[in-house]
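User: Here's a chain of 136 residues. Predict its fold as tokens.
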Amino acid sequence: MHYATAAALTVALVDPLVAMRAGTVLNCNVPDVALDRLRGVRRAELSGAEVLHVVSVGSDQVRVTFGFAGRPTDPHDDWALGAEGFATVTALTYPAADPDPAVQSAVEGASAVLDARFAHPRSLPADPAPGTPRNA
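Assistant: Prediction complete.
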């Protein structure tokens, strides 16, 4: 698991998030790749594909796996971009993506800055077949 990649993006998103209005939540999805393999960062809409969560409990651990039941219908949503090796950022308000143009513009700007900082357009290994669970 490449937690350092997610940690680097999380830290980099703190300042943009603090500058947004109170109540804004940023959903950041990060592919499981080393930071130097990340293809970039994009603002994305939430995918309409169903997300599956499976929890198994053992005597001394809990394991959560997830996968997608469907395929994305939009090549620019968070699922599709994640499958291409990009991290995605989506501003949320309950219960969906935040429609405020100022928030969307701020997320677009933050994504562009992060993309310039973290993009590594190298080829990536093939993704598992759609619907294949991934460990979280």
